[in-house]
Specification:
With about 625 residues, the chain is of the alpha+beta class. It is about 35% helix and about 25% strand. The protein is built from 20 helices and 32 strands. It has an eight-stranded mixed β-sheet. Strand 26 (about 495-500) and strand 27 (about 505) form a beta hairpin. Helix 8 packs across helix 16 and helix 13 (about 395-410) runs parallel beside helix 14 (about 430-450). The longest helix has 21 residues, at about 65-85. The termini are far apart. The structure holds one RNA strand of 76 nucleotides.
Length: about 625
RNA sequence: GCUGGCGUAGCUCAAUAGGUAGAGCAGCUGACUUGUAAUCAGCAGGUUGCGGGUUCGAUUCCUGUCGCCAGCUCCA
């Protein structure tokens, strides 16, 4: 007999060798039907695992934590099964994990290239195998046996995996004539899989290393039922409508030109205005926080990039030019000029910290395949600052930056993820430096009250860093804010300050950006608001619409008055029906439409309509101006 | 950079078993003077991304190149 303790504290007595499925049945048929796995002493296991000893047991259903992931993992096996039965030895299987909203499986094939046209065929095969409700059976075999078996099947990648595992025994999962190396656990049978759909195929390197073979990765989505999957696909469809590349064109904000070059943004009037509003906001917020605005040149002599170490490490990503036999590098970062400003005179410990802020435009030759709308470009402007401080000031400076980041995220209503990256294997600087800097970053993160991830060994070679990531419409993460400690530049540029003791000391440098690249930030912003910018950001805040030509003069007067008051306003006097003009303003996501008909002319008012569709009571122009100013004040 | 896919009018898309392209919206012209998401009519608009090849003939097939999309790798 074994004693099994359930989550509610009750204890069941069962025959040795009973399974969690037996336990579920004992509790109720309903639970047994929904059960997909079990947590035995906290470990996720198959429902058919024999219970040999006393244990704590929790039945896992599709609704419980980990249940859905397991479901998707089994769906990945189902897809591999389908692909193998369709393509046989032409295709080798590798690995296939569950991911957010679905799963993928990586295949290797020399002969066959998967295309989306085949998705239906593969899905049909999957459905067929699911309908057959094949039991998914766990087997434990010796590693040598497994190697022999997979080698016999021509599955070289599986052989490599087993050999690298270095374990004595491995587990296999078998469903029908398909067998895969897998730790599991899995669903009891293929019949549990109800809703799945292949979504895309793309290349992926074996083991994520570009030196390895390129595999073919098929992405798919999977849900416990069709309705939920449909909902997910509809959400994706909605997200695509928020794509900043699409909205950027539709709202006439920016464009790219093949003639100008890939990854180089061309800002149209409305986009440039939006950007200007954000830049003005940045300057104001930085001045408030004790930063000095500085400006450096676009190109600096190549020698200086050699001094900084950029030439040695990053020249492949830099653009160079030569005039009069003098080489120049187009700046990929803004720090050099800031170093020169620091060095322009003798500094005292009393001067520190110095905070140099620059809306610095940089150019980096990013690999062609990584460019992505505004989110990854080759020319962009950073809200960049370099803080030079004494070692004892690191802590408070980092915390100040952290607060700044959080305040800005709050103003724009962003949720964000934070990561701390620590010392990599290849690094410079003393243990003491690293310790001090890392603990300053960590303490700022702890103080922030937000959860964060630690990426051990993921820091830059010159110092640890905090990254803040924002998500785009499709939940892809993009790094925006970052705080990095740097031990090399003060060293390489021989920066120093005179301390209280009259001796020279080396300052510490922090690189930091708040929104990061303005381009990227605007890209994320567009998707975040779906193009419906809050009033204070809207490049066009209101448009004045006359009903007929009769009100043209008054409409012009209203427009001029609003413009004089500093509102960003347009005038639409076209000879069109009101409905037509409203629609157009609506499509352009202009916050307020000011309708002017005979009534308004007579009363000296405007009739505002909000882009959400609701109308406000008619008001005078002055009232509307105050109304807009009040609304803008709410945001910052 | 890599793998796969794609590139037709300003935008969204159609067409061709190889026989030099068509629609809606936008634009222009005219009529209509209009009250909260599309008034009607007419006109105009493309060396089918660019270069080379095969062919009597290429937008269609092949090849190179540029760009875009998805993902991978990268992101100081």
């Amino acid at each position: 007999m074994v004693h099994i303790e359930l989550p509610d504290g009750s204890v069941k007595e069962l025959d040795q060798g009973s399974t969690p499925l037996d336990v579920a049945r004992g509790i109720g048929e309903g639970l047994a039907r929904q059960a997909v796995a079990a947590k035995i002493n906290g470990e996720l296991r198959d429902l058919t695992t024999p219970l040999e000893n006393d244990a704590k047991l929790e039945i896992v259903t599709l609704k419980s934590q980990g249940g859905l992931e397991l479901y998707r993992h089994s769906a990945a096996h189902l897809m591999a099964h389908a692909v193998k039965s369709l393509f046989g030895k032409e295709v080798q299987v590798t690995i296939g994990p569950a991911i957010d909203n679905g799963f993928y499986y990586d295949f290797y094939s020399e002969e066959h290239a998967f295309s989306p046209e085949e998705f239906e065929t593969i899905e049909a095969k999957m459905s067929e195998l699911a309908k057959a409700d094949l039991p998914i059976v766990r087997e434990e075999v010796s590693a040598t046996e497994a190697v022999e078996m997979f080698r016999g099947m021509g599955e070289e990648y599986k052989v490599e995996l087993i050999e690298d595992l270095g374990a004595e025994t491995v587990t296999l999962y078998r469903q029908g004539d398909f067998v895969d190396l897998c730790r599991g656990p899995h669903l009891p049978s293929t019949g549990f899989l109800k809703a799945f759909k292949l979504t895309s195929v793309a290349g992926a390197y074996w083991r994520g290393d570009e030196k390895n073979a390129m595999l073919q990765r098929i992405y798919a989505t999977a849900f416990p039922d069709k309705k939920e999957m449909k909902k997910h696909l509809a959400r994706l469809e909605e997200a695509r409508k928020r794509d900043h590349r699409k909205l950027g064109r539709e709202l006439d904000l920016f464009s790219f030109s093949e003639e100008a070059g890939a990854g180089l943004v061309i800002w149209h009037p409305k986009g440039a205005l939006l950007r200007t509003i954000i830049e003005d906001f940045e300057r104001k917020e930085h001045l408030k926080r004790g930063y000095d605005i500085v400006m450096g040149p676009q190109i600096l002599r190549t020698d200086l990039w050699k001094t900084s170490g950029h030439y040695e490490n990053y020249r492949d990503n830099m653009y160079f030019t030569e005039v009069d036999e003098q080489g120049y590098g187009i700046k990929p970062m803004n720090c050099l000029a800031h170093m020169l400003i620091y060095k322009s005179k003798l500094r005292s410990y009393r001067d520190l910290p110095l905070r140099y802020f620059e809306l610095g435009t940089v150019h980096r030759h990013e690999k062609s395949g990584v460019l992505h709308g505004l989110l990854r470009v080759r020319g962009f402007t950073q809200d960049d600052a370099h803080i030079l401080c004494r070692p004892d000031q690191i802590d408070s400076e980092v915390k100040g930056v952290m607060r700044f980041v959080q305040e800005v995220a709050g103003i724009f209503g962003f949720e964000y993820n934070m990561e701390l990256s620590t010392r990599p294997e290849k690094s410079i600087g003393s243990d003491e430096d690293w310790e001090r800097a890392t603990s300053a970053l960590k303490s700022a993160l702890d103080d922030s009250g937000q959860p964060y991830e630690v990426n051990e060994g993921d820091g830059a070679f010159y110092g640890p860093k905090i990254d803040v990531k924002l998500k785009d419409a499709l939940d892809r993460e993009w790094q925006c804010a970052t705080i990095q400690c740097d031990f090399t530049l003060p060293e390489r540029f021989e920066l120093n300050y005179i301390g209280q003791d009259g001796e020279k000391h080396r300052p510490v440098m922090l690189h930091r950006v708040i929104v990061g690249s303005i381009e990227r930030f605007i890209g994320v912003l567009i998707e975040h608001y779906a193009g419906n910018f809050p009033l204070w950001l809207s490049p066009v805040q209101a448009t004045v619409l006359n009903v007929t030509d009769n009100q043209a003069d008054y409409a012009r007067k209203v427009h001029d008055q609003l413009r004089a008051a500093g509102l960003r306003v347009e005038l639409d006097l076209r000879n069109e029906k009101l409905g037509f003009k409203i629609r157009e303003a609506q499509v352009n996501k202009i916050p307020y439409m000011l309708v002017i008909g005979d009534r308004e002319v007579e009363n000296g008012t405007v009739a505002p309509r909000f882009r959400k569709g609701n109308n406000l009571d008619p008001m005078t122009v002055d009232e509307f101006i105050r109304f807009v100013q009040d609304e803008c004040r709410q945001y910052h």
